[in-house]
Each structure stands twice: as structure tokens, then as C-alpha cells.
Amino acid sequence: MRTSRVSRETAKMVQALSPPRRRTRSSLAASSLRDFSYSENQAAPELSDDSSLSSVKTEDIEDLLERPAKRRRRNVDTPSTTISTVSTSRLVKQEVTIKAETQITTPRSASSKQRRQPAKRIKREDGSIEMQPPSNWETMYNIVKKMRAENPTAPVDTMGCAELHWRSSPPKDQRFQTLVALMLSSQTKDTVTAVAMQRLHTELAQGGGSTNETKPLIKKEEDDDDKDGIKFNHEKKDSTLTVQNMLAVSPERLNELIRTVGFHNNKTKYIKQVANILRDQYNSDIPSTPVELMALPGVGPKMAYLCMSAAWGKHEGIGVDVHVHRITNLWGWHTTKTPEETRIALQSWLPRDKWHEINKLLVGLGQTVCLPVGRRCGECELAGTGLCKSEVKGLAVKMKREVREEVEVKEEGKVKEKAKVKEEAKVSYRDDLFRPETAILAKSVTPS
Question: What is the pLDDT of residues 34-75, one digit of tens each?
Fold first, then answer.
């Protein structure tokens, strides 16, 4: 409908006298549409019934209007801040924050991105799959290898399953002894496994308990700083751990000999079954393939591949135990849930010449530094390098240790200083007591 000049002026006067209304998004949109449709000097054209605004190609209304600033309660005396000022201050604040973050993270941003890249599966153009190793894996491997070589004090270094065979025994018996040691080592510490193997080497052929005539085949190293430094004494006599003696011993007696290891009841049953299979199918020797080894009762992939390396010298797979599985996941090399998944992931990219040594390398690291509970990151050579993804306050631990040592030195110095002062006080007291004038005075006052 048409509006006259008088009605428009009347509307303006009413609007001026009425209190100002809060400007909402809808009112702003309506005002913009009014200004867009007609001006004060031009009457609005009549719209026919078939006309529609939707037929006109325009931008969205929210794109045309500037989004209002977030409302806040202000005091009466507080000057209002325009939208442009708020947006400008936000931009300045964001720019300052970005600059500060860049200054803080620039030294380690590149290494952080590199060290957190796990092994990746890449598909080539020809359809083949290539495994890309994790970033900086070789640097980490060499650092740990050097660290372990400089301090070979882990139990696996002297009491690992590859070290528990009897050197004077025939090769066939040595292979069987290695297999038995691996079966006993499951869920058992190396020190406990070594003691159980010592009893099997010395007492398996005896009908009763151990006699005093049998000399122990494990001796303590008196000069070794390691309390668990146990080594076999191979000069005494031949080992009794053979397939024939294992077949002849009763299950009760075998269970008594290995009672210190974990799950000894199940292991007694499995070892007796394995001895029967080796006698019937392999001429009292152990199988020479991983598949045949894994077919034996109680033997899994870890034992099979470790046995292949230690007994046959064939490195056909990686023996992954809980230490290897845990540490490689802590390093961010992969994200696996089971040791078997870890083995498959490692074998897909790790060079074959390292398949044999990685188990002993990481097991020793897990026994001495990278412990399952209470990791000693401050004592690890990877601390502070940015290579270990799961480093727990490595530098902080190292600094705390240095500070603690410094405090101990200072306290020791204070104690020594106090002791020195006391000693000097005693000496000065004695000197005063035995001066000539003091002695004369004491003699004069002494009753005759």
C-alpha cells in the first residue's frame, strides 16, 4: 500500500518521542531491507502477488550485517567500546599470543613433529605396500645400544635364557636346555629362572632330594657389585638336564625342582609333554623351524623365535616380550595392543640384522632404567634429546638428582665443618688446660 508524506512524518514523530528499543538482529535486518527497498524521497513500488524476494539473487543477511559484540555489564561511567575497537584488540591479542607461542616452541617444534611420527604404511603406485620406519629410530637405537654396552649390569646379560645351557653338554642337549629355560622364563624373573635351571642341571637324575655331595653349579661373584650376579660354574660335572632324564623323572619331582618359577604346575605338564614329543618325532632333538616349535605345548611365538636364534643360530623372527612391547610403544614407534602385534609391526620395517639383538637390548633397558613402574628417565641417555615420546620429566628428574647430590655434598660439608670446629675447640681447651701458668695455678690450689 502507498503511504502519504503526512503519515511518514507522523511515524517519525512517534518514533522520536517513544523510548529507544533494543536493536536486535531482526530489527537490523528489517532496517537494512527498508533502506535497501526505498528511500525517503522515493515511494515504495507496489508488489504484485507473483513477485517474491526469493527470486532475487542476493547474499545471506548475516553476511551483510556485522555480528554484534558480546554484551557485557558496564558501569554508567564506563565508556562504550565499539565493535571495531573490540575486533582490533582481539586481533592484536591473537597476534601477540601467536608470536609468544612461536618463540617458545620454535627450538623444539621440528624435533617434536619428527619424533612423534610412528611407522607408516605407504601404498605405491603399482599397488605394493611399503612400510616407512618411525622417525629417528636409528638414532634412538644406537644411543640405547651404546648405553647398554657401557653398563651391562642387567640380569638378562648374565642370566638370560641364551646363557643357561650347559657348555660341556652335546649340542643336542644344549638346544633342549635352551628350550626348557625359555619355557621356565615365562612370567618369571631371570634370577629365579637361573636358580631353577641350576637345580635341573644338578638334581634332575637324582631320585630323592639334593645331597650334600653335589656341588652347586651356580656361584656368587664376590667381586661383582650386582647382588644378583649369578654365574654357572661349568667345571664341576656334566649336566643332568637331558631328554632321557626328563622322561624318567616323575611329575611330582619335576614340579618340586621348578617350584620357584611362576605357573610351575602348568610348566611341569608342558615340559613332560614336550619331552615325549621330542623323543617320538624329533629323535630327542628340538624342531628346527618356528612353526614346529610353536606346535609344541606351552611354546608361543616369542619362545619359538628366541629359541631359533639361541639354539639354531637362525634369526627368522623377533622375540617380543613385555619389555619390548612396552618400550617400543612408549617410544611411539607404533601403537599395538599385544606383543604379537608388536612383533609383526617391528618385522615390517626393522632391518633383519637387528632381529636377534633387539630383544636383549630392550629387555636389559627395561630391567635397569625403563622400568615398568617408576621409570628412571633421568638416568636414560635419551633424556633431553626430544626423541622419546613418553619421557617423564627426564630433565627435571636429572636436575632433581643433581640438586639432591649438591645438597648432600653441602650437608656433608656442614657436618665436616661442625666436626672440625668441635675438634678445634677440644684442642684449644686442652692447650689452655696444659699451659704452664694454668698448671701452676692448678698446683697451687691443689690441697697438700
Answer: 554 444 444 444 444 444 434 444 444 334 444 455 555 555
Q: Grid cell 632433581 — which residue? A: 400
191 and 311, same structural domain? yes
**Phi/psi zone of residue 117: left (φ > 0), alpha (ψ -120 to 50 degrees), beta?**
beta
Boundary of a domain, candidates 316, 345, 375:
316
Domain count for the chain, please give it: 2
The b/e string for 108-120 (b: 16+ C-beta within 10 A; e otherwise) is eeeeeeebebbbe
**Residues of the domain holding 405:** 395-443
Q: Single out the residue in 299, 316, 333 at which a domain terminates.
A: 316
CA 368 – CA 358 distance, rounded (Å): 16
In this structure, are residues 258 and 196 in contact, taking their beta carbons and an 8 Å threshold? yes
Same domain, 309 and 405: no
Q: Give per-residue burial for 210-224: e unless 16+ CB within 10 Å, then b.
A: eeeeeeebbeeeeee
Task: Give pTM, 2 decimals.
Answer: 0.59
Residues labelled catalytic: 302
